[in-house]
Amino acid sequence: MGYYTDFKLDVLDQAPIGSKTPIEDITKAIDKLDYFRAEGYGESLLNHELDSIKWYDYQDDMKNISSQFPNVLFTLRGEGEENGDIWVAYFKNGKVQQSKAKITFDEFNESKLV
Known about the structure:
Blueprint: E1 5-13, H1 23-31, H2 34-38, E2 48-53, H3 58-68, E3 72-80, E4 86-92, E5 95-100
Antiparallel strand pairs: 1-2, 1-3, 3-4, 4-5
């Protein structure tokens, strides 16, 4: 069965002007992930989206790709099939920072009743 997640990948080259990573090189590395190629994405580096897939090794895969392009920031967003399972992971130079969404509600305020 497994757990399905919707993914969105954004790519930002943070290298100084004149030393930018060729977009074709980054595209080739991303295309090697069967997840993106299988869904037919890979045309635009800025906005890869995958709906309802099982990608359990996304951290290892993205750390590997990011280590190949140390000046590129990869932002991977995920929304799992369970309510509230929303997160973002930033990958740069083979490292990852991941953060889960924090869902909050305002306290009751009678003056806001309409």
